[in-house]
Design brief:
Strand content: under 5%
Number of helices: 5
Shape: elongated
Largest sheet: none
Order of helices and strands: HHHHH
Distance between the termini: 27 Å
Structural class: mainly alpha
Helix content: 55-70%
Length: 90
């Protein structure tokens, strides 16, 4: 187990931290999915932004989980990446 995982495990023992961590999970899952898909397509943030007719900063905000993208933005993003969008409830 690396240092990050040990620290995360320790922090998750705190109920308030755990609650906040769980609340932010969807944003981080979106960020990871966008980063993974963009890299697999060999695109920079700027190139992806150009395909979406938006600024690179918009892509950056999504990839750093500093925003919650709308469903319509995610649909456009999936189209620009040549992928499909899937939403799940677990």
């Amino acid at each position: 187990m690396d240092d990050f995982e040990r620290m995360k495990k320790r922090l998750l023992r705190n109920p308030e931290f755990k609650r906040l961590y769980e609340e932010s999970r969807p944003e981080f899952e979106i960020a990871r999915a966008v980063i993974r898909a963009r890299i697999q397509k060999g695109l920079t943030q700027k190139q992806l932004a150009d395909k979406l007719h938006t600024g690179q900063s918009a892509i950056s905000r999504v990839e750093t989980a500093n925003t919650t993208p709308s469903l319509s933005f995610l649909k456009k993003l999936a189209q620009a990446l040549g992928t499909s969008l899937s939403v799940q409830f677990k």
